[in-house]
Amino acid sequence: MAPRFYNTLTGRIEPFEPLEPGHARIYSCGPTVYDRAHVGNFRTFVWEDLLRRFLKFRGYRVTQVMNVTDVDDRTIRAAIESGMTLEEVTRPVEAQFFEDWKTLGLEPMEHHPRATEHVDTMIALVRRLEERGLTYERDGSVYFAISRSPEYGRLARLDPEGARAAGRVEGDEEYSKEDPRDFVLWKGGERGEESVAVWDSPWGLGRPGWHLECSAMSMEYLGESFDIHTGGVDNIFPHHTNEMAQSEGATGRPLARYWLHAEHLLVDGGKMSKSLGNYYTIPDLLDRGYRPSAIRYLLLSAHYRTQLNFTLPGLNTAERALERLAEFGRRLLDQVAGEPSPSPGVEGGSHPIAILADQARAAFRDAMDEDLSASDALAAIFTFVREANRELDAAPGGPRAGEVEAALAVLQDFDAVFGVLSLRETEVSPDDPAVRAWVEGRIAARDEARAARDYERADAIRREVEERGFRLEDTPDGTRWKATTSGLPT
Q: Which of 210, 207, 204, 218 has its CA nearest to residue 250?
C-alpha cells in the first residue's frame, strides 16, 4: 500500500502516486536570508526532513529542491540600511541557516539554488506569461492579471473576486496596478534599490517578484510538473496561490500534484515574540543547555497539520523520552555483548520480543503511511519499548537468538525516519567547551544552594542537569559529572 498524504489542493488524504514510479520529486520553500531563522521556521524544515526520510525509508528515490531567497523586500531593506551589498547581507545569514540545519540533523537536499543566480530563468518565465496574454506592463513593472486566470485561488479556496487583499499582503502598495488583486512579476522603476539589487530585462532595470522566484527554480530543477510542493500554512496564500497561477499559466500543466503544508508553531501557548521573551533561535536554545536531539524530537512530536506548542518544559520531556529510547538501546547492546542464549532449531521471529518487534514495525509504518502521523508512530515505538523491557525482565536465561537483533532493527528503522538517536550520538562530549561550561555552571549553582541549605533548589538543579542527559556524582573531592550516551549503533 502506498503512503497517503493530505493534499491541500483537494482537501483530501490521497495515496501518493508519483509521476515517475519510485521517484519522488519535491520542492520546499526555503528561507529568506535577511535574519537568522527561528525555531518556528525550523518546525516546517524539520517536518520536511521527516517527509524526505520517510519516503526514502519506503523505498523511493528522492530529488528535493529548497531555494534560498536572497533577494526580496526584506533583504534589500537590510542591505540599504546597513550600507552593505546584498551578498554581504545574505551570505552570512545563509551560512547560519545551514549551520542550524546541520545542528538539527537535517539531511542535505539535492539542490539549494539561490534566487540571485536564476534571474535569467525568471525573466524567461515572465516572457512566457506575456505570450499567453496573462500580464500587463506599467511604469517598467510587469503584473500578473488575475482576472485573466479563471482558476486563480483554488489552492486557498478563494473566489477570485474575493482575493482583493493579494497586493496588500505582499507589500506592493507602491506599485500602480490595474486591479488591486494583481501581483507583480517584475519590479521596475526608480525605487532607490539600484545600488543593491538590479538586473537588466526587456522591461528595463528591475528585479523579480518573490513568487516568480520559486516558480522559476522549481521548474528548472524538477520540470514543469512534479510531485510534492511543501511549506508552512502561511505560504498557502498569497505565495503558493500566486506561484501556482503563474506556473500553470505559463505551462498549461499542473505545477505539483500534492501540496503539503505544516501548521504554525506556538511558543508557551501563543505567538513567538521578542518582546514577550519567547523568541528562540537554535543557538539560543543550545546556550540554555538543550540538546539538538531534544529540539528535533519536540518539533516532530505532533502531527504536522496540528499546531505545536513549544515550551522549555516540553524540551525536558523530550529529553526524558529520548533517554528512555537510548536506555533501551543500551540494554539491547548489553545483551549482545553478553551473547544471548541460543535456541537451536528455532528462529528468533517465533519468540515474544521478535513478535513484538514485527508488530511495532508494522504499526510504525502504518502510522507514518497515514499522512505522516508522527504521534501515532512514536506511540507504537514506546509501546514496543515498554513491552520488550517487560519480556527482557521476565526471560530467566536472557533473550533467544535473533530477538535482540529484531529489537535493534526496530530502533534503527525508527531512527532512519526520525533521525534523533543518531543525532544524539554526535552531540554530547565532555570535551565540548559549551557543554562543560553549562554543566559546571549548574554544579556551581547547586553548590551555592547546598551551602545556603536550600536543598529544594539544589535538588531541582540536579534534576535539571540529569534531564539534559548528564549524571552527577558527589564525592569527597567535589561533584563529578559525565554525559550519558545512547549506545545505539549508526
A: 218
